[in-house]
């Protein structure tokens, strides 16, 4: 049984070797740990920058959506005012009461008499008595404020 002969010197040597090996492994592990932390930090930074990029994109998207909404609202407004104008025109065309009414006294003019139809050079039409009084006072067309002379008032008696 010669194999059982153990040299204590050799055991010490082996122990020392093992210790060194453990130390080396420890420092290697430390290094790995540090690398791991660095990698984690890098990942975190990358994640953050990705987050920022996503947030910026989201913001840009929101802005674009807002712009779109604004343009849409503008278009809707334009359409609405267009509809209102069309409606006003329709009302005017369907109900030309304004045309046969003196805008000064809001009564319709007569074919004869003091409130017969009278026109001004600007093309506006009133009852004769009303526009005569008005022009005497202001020398202006009450509808478009064009300057008028008393002698400019044209009477339109029935033919
Ligand atoms: Zn009148
Ligand atoms: Zn006028």
TrEMBL record:
GO cellular component: nucleus
Chain ranges of the RING-type domain: 102-145
Coiled-coil annotated residue ranges, if any: 12-81
Record field: transmembrane: none
Pfam families: zf-RING_2
Key words of the record: Coiled coil, Metal-binding, Zinc, Zinc-finger
Origin: domain of life: Eukaryota
InterPro entries noted in UniProt: RFWD3, Znf_RING, Znf_RING/FYVE/PHD
MF terms in GO: ubiquitin-protein transferase activity; zinc ion binding
SUPFAM superfamilies (alphabetical): RING/U-box
Any GO BP annotation: interstrand cross-link repair
This protein's name: ERAD-associated E3 ubiquitin-protein ligase HRD1A-like
Species per Swiss-Prot/TrEMBL record: Drosophila madeirensis
């Amino acid at each position: 049984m010669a194999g059982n002969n153990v040299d204590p010197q050799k055991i010490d040597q082996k122990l020392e070797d093992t210790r060194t090996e453990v130390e080396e492994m420890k420092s290697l592990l430390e290094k790995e740990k540090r690398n791991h932390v660095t990698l984690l930090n890098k990942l975190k930074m990358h994640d953050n920058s990705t987050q920022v990029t996503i947030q910026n994109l989201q913001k840009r998207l929101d802005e674009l959506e807002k712009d779109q909404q604004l343009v849409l609202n503008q278009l809707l407004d334009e359409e609405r005012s267009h509809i209102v104008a069309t409606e006003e025109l329709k009302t005017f065309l369907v109900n030309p009461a304004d045309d046969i009414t003196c805008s000064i006294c809001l009564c319709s003019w007569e074919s004869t008499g003091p409130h017969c139809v009278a026109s001004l050079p600007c093309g506006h039409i009133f009852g004769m008595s009303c526009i005569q009084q008005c022009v005497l006072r202001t020398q202006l067309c009450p509808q478009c404020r064009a300057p008028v002379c008393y002698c400019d008032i044209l009477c339109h008696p029935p033919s």
